[in-house]
Design goal:
8 helices; 6-stranded mixed sheet; 4-stranded antiparallel sheet; alpha/beta
Length: 257
């Protein structure tokens, strides 16, 4: 998908990403009581990439995303972002859960939802500013949600709901977007629309990591792939890592035993 990229400009998001800001995960292990959900997983990537996270059910995909986002404690391992160790969570990371984990009946409009993304920029002494309004509008426009600002999220289509939550992450000025099965439940036009927008986010200098189950569409949607089954099976560009041997290792019945 490199052909979809455009050159970085001074006005592009994440102008500092020209310095190749890197996310590095090493030896990450996460346990639920006595169950090891993730063991010694690791990879390194940087802003400007769109990464597919694939593996069988129970492979630890959601666990990895939540651990990076700081929503789950690590038993061991390290996460580094832009050369610094991330202890628990980082304000430049944003996590989007699977659709079934969201209460879509919660009474909030698109505008209100995206405004929530600015809350991490506020403090007890800083009031809402024109700059906050601008960031919210930019995020709504970027996700093609203009005209839907007053619509309740329960009234949106599946694709619009996903884009609204991504807009909230953009408004928060997140550089790393951790998306859990963002294409699930969307019809083909909505999937294609979302994939174009995710490629645009990566081209503008963000890092997009998305768990994904449709292996047939990986080469069309992503430029890097992390194949996981509790441990890292393979990581690299799609051409390097998305190979039959690696997929067979990850999806073999013995691997999930």
């Amino acid at each position: 998908m490199a052909q979809h990229r455009r050159p970085m400009t001074p006005d592009s998001h994440c102008d500092h990403c020209a310095h190749h800001h890197e996310l590095e995960v090493r030896g990450l292990t996460v346990c639920y009581r006595s169950h090891v959900a993730l063991e010694n997983a690791g990879f390194a990537t940087s802003c400007g990439n769109c990464v597919a996270l694939i593996g069988p059910n129970g492979a630890g995909k959601s666990t990895l995303l939540k651990a990076i986002a700081g929503l789950l404690p690590r038993s061991s391992g390290s996460i580094r972002w832009r050369g610094a160790t991330v202890q628990k969570w980082h304000r430049e990371f944003a996590y989007l859960p699977q659709r079934e984990e969201v209460d879509w009946s919660f009474p909030v409009t698109v505008q209100g939802l995206v405004e929530m993304g600015r809350y991490n920029q506020l403090s007890w002494w800083r009031r809402w500013r024109t700059e906050d309004d601008r960031k919210v509008k930019e995020a709504i426009d970027l996700m093609n949600l203009g005209g839907l600002e007053s619509r309740q999220i329960s009234q949106l289509s599946g694709g619009q709901q996903q884009r609204a939550f991504i807009a909230r992450a953009i408004a928060s000025e997140a550089h790393v977007l951790l998306l859990d099965e963002p294409f699930t439940g969307l019809d083909r036009p909505a999937q294609e629309n979302l994939s174009v927008l995710l490629r645009r986010l990566a081209a503008e200098g963000r890092l997009v990591i998305a768990s994904h189950h449709d292996l047939n569409t990986v080469p069309d949607l992503f430029d890097q792939v992390l194949i996981l089954n509790r441990r890292t099976v393979a990581f690299g560009t799609v051409a390097e890592a998305f190979l039959p041997d690696a997929l067979a290792t990850a999806y073999a019945p013995a691997a999930t035993a």
